[in-house]
UniProtKB/TrEMBL annotation:
The keyword Cell membrane applies. The lineage of its organism: Bacteria, Pseudomonadati, Acidobacteriota, Terriglobia, Terriglobales. Pfam families: FtsX (PF02687), MacB_PCD (PF12704). It comes from Edaphobacter aggregans. Residues 22-250 form the MacB-like periplasmic core domain. Residues 293-408 form the ABC3 transporter permease C-terminal domain. Keywords: Cell membrane, Membrane, Transmembrane, Transmembrane helix. Belongs to the ABC-4 integral membrane protein family. This is Putative ABC transport system permease protein.
Amino acid sequence: MRALLDIFAQVFRSIGANKLRSFLTMFGIAWGVASLLLLIGLGEGFRSGQRRSLSEIGTDFIMMFGGTIPALPGQHTGMQPYKLTLSDANAIRAEAQHVRNTTALINRGDLKEVSEFSSAGGPVMGVEVNFPEIRHLPIAQGRFLNEDDLAQSRQVVVLGQKNNKLLFPGRPSLGAYITLNGYRFQVIGVANKIGRGNNDSDNQKIYIPLSTMMELFAMKGDNIPQDSIYSIQYQPLTPDQNETAKAEVHKIIGRRHGFDPNLTDAFEEWDTIKSQRTVGVIFTAMDVFLGGVGIVTLALGAVGIINIMLVTVTERTREIGLRKALGATNRSILMQFFLEGLLLTAISGMIGIIGAGGLMFLLGQALGDNQMGFDPPRLVPWSAAMAMVTLTLCGVVAGLYPATKAAMLQPVEALRKE
């Protein structure tokens, strides 16, 4: 035990005797570790922010809109637009075996919203009762629409948080009335805030029964069916069955609107499940790339430590020869120089990890929680573990080779060295 303590004391004396050289060597390793962990932490913050943004839109759903049937070679008809209908949504509910939930909606942005105190603008959504099951819509006050509201085409409304503040500044809104293009609606609920930052598009929406929307504010235009809707949104039985569910829905829509469902250009849709997978693949590839860059950086740092240790062995050749002449064993010489290289690497790595963690904490405090699509960076456990394992291997190599060279020196030859 005493011998081991003596070796550690010699190691620290050696490091302290060359402060500038030791500092510069350790700084290179610490900088590489901190850079690696910071980049991965920023990437993880962006990844989790994107996942959160998608989850605030809704849960594993596919959004379909009216499309355009492309012109086919040999046919005299040109491109033909078509609108989705409530009948299409009901057909999907009845026929699509791999779809567990379907909702239809109408989106109108041209209706004037007026209360006793103020006026506001924003999309008016005609929705069904199951809309919050697919889309993220937490209720802060009151309730959401129910079956009776739709069955009786009631003139009731749920306000988004931003429009609630605009229409009823500093006043209670539940039970009060607003008008939409002159029609009187009673406020039955207020949605909670959706999203972060200054993006208030979802918080400016208001929601009324789809049946009421179709009765009072139906979609108008040439060749538009009476039960036309803006969008159909649906969830597959499981996220892994999204392609199967889409194929079933395409087949139903193609049959009902008279075109080949294999004409993918005829469908306007957004698959949030596929988008989430794409985001995951991109960030996984980024993690692999950054991990490779980090390992190379740490390996280069280890080469620097090997070089410094070899210089140290050369400078201390006479000391090594004298110690061996006085009875020092190859093992004690090997252990001293091995521990010196290992400690240089380990201390550098710990400084890098602590520095990266501190910097990410400060960035998180500065950025706050209100950045849209971006969460504060955080120290990722697997990246810190990878850095420590890589540093350990680099430290073993950086310490072992110069230490072996020092231990193999012959005392007589070492004492002759000037």
